[in-house]
Amino acid sequence: MTIKLFLLAVLFVLSGGAAFSEYFKGHKFISLLAMTIAIIATFYLFQDIYDDLKQPSSSTQVELQRQAEAQRIAKLEAKLKRQNELQQQALLQLAELKKQQADSEQNVLENTQLDVVFLIDQSGSIKAIDKYKHRISIVENVIMRLAEHAKGTPLIHRVSVVEFGGDSLVPVAVPISVLELKYNPVKPNDIVSKTKRHIANALHSRSENMGNTDIPLGMKVALAEFRQLKAKSGGEIRERKLLLFIGGRPYTYKKQLEHLRRDIENYADELERSNVSLWVIGLNNASDYWNTGDGAFWKNVVGMKQTRFAETSFPNIASIVQNLVDQWLGMGDY
Predict the structure, then answer these.
(1) Domain assignment present for 86
(2) Which residue of 108, 153, 215, 259 could cross-link 250, Cys pair, CB 3.0 to 4.6 Å?
(3) Residues 291, 293, 299, 302: is their CA dihedral positive or negative?
């Protein structure tokens, strides 16, 4: 009991007892005053008791505050948990989107239809570098691989082969022009067997010595082949690749080296405008031309990623070309 309640109770007892005592019976005013004080004391006594009953004790208040704090903490924890869950969901969704994008890009690569022109150096200097014609065999293998890739699918790959020399009676030749590698479900093996016969007859019956090394002339003819391939495509979206095999520095009787290099740069720009990606494989020779300026020149023209150097034609060139074709077909990294 508080001091306030105690004082009110004492005041009530005293005033109430005085109001009904023998001493105050003859003094009505004083008796009335004592009764009034008793009534007022009673009122405040009950009011104070009611307030005490209404208000919880200090221990109860502490408990209520503790519970309120616990509820607030629980709500914050629930909010943080929900935020973490949403964040995890967002990260999972982002990862899924990235995976879908990667799968989509991979699917596009795996279902890409290719137009490929092989531009082969057949100059006199190439004979000493690649006397067993490994570059010819590798072109044949790539074409056969593209045929196998199209087999059993609606994909259609098309290829051309351009051979070049320079300053000779026949400075350039096109033994294969717009060869279509298309699967026929009625004759499922024809795409492989017919392609093999065709390229064997076209590529292995020719001599490799076609004079000097007029690379711009070969690029000019390759561009003409791409125009034919584009006309054949009928507006399809296709990847266009030019794979150039060279065995020496550009050289002709009529033009200086710098003039030939400017022509190469101009044709490379025209290829880029035609959405053709140029890939260059350089075979080394006795002059070490690649390491004395030409390698840097070609890397500047087409970029580091699309320039390869083969110290020897075999086995270097085989693995290099295999990796390139893997990239074209979405089976390897650039």
Answers:
(1) no
(2) 215
(3) negative
Q: What's the domain count of the chain? A: 2
pLDDT given for residue 59 in this prediction: 66
Low-confidence ranges of the chain (pLDDT < 70): 1-35, 37-38, 41-46, 48-60, 99-111, 204-208, 312-314, 332-334
> pTM of the prediction?
0.68
With a CB cutoff of 8 Å and minimum separation 6, the contacts of 209 are 122, 123, 124, 127, 165
Instruction: Say if 93 falls within a structural domain.
Output: no
The pLDDT, as a whole number, for residue 57 is 56
Specify the CATH number for the domain of residue 254.
3.40.50.410
Asked if residue 151 and residue 22 are part of one domain, the reply reads no
| 48, 126: one domain | no
Last residue in a domain, options 32, 54, 76: 54
Residue-level pLDDT at 146: 96
Three-class HEC string of 71-129: HHHHHHHHHHHHHHHHHHHHHHHHHHHHHHHHHHHHHHHHCCCEEEEEEEECCCCHHHH
Considering the domain architecture, whether residues 128 and 201 belong to the same structural domain is answered as yes
Domain holding 10, by residue range, is 3-54
The structure tokens listed for 228 are 């034919």
pLDDT at 223: 98
Residue in the structure block whose two tokens are 């008793």: 38
Please report the pLDDT score of residue 272 as a whole number. Answer: 95
Q: How many CB atoms lie within 10 A of CB 266?
A: 13
Strands lying side by side in the sheet with 239-246: 172-182, 156-164, 114-121, 239-246, 276-283, 307-310
The first and second tokens of residue 74, run together, are 């629980």
CA angle centred on 204, ends 185 and 157, rounded to 5°: 35
**Per-residue confidence (pLDDT) for residue 105, from 0 to 100:** 46
**In-domain check, residue 63:** no
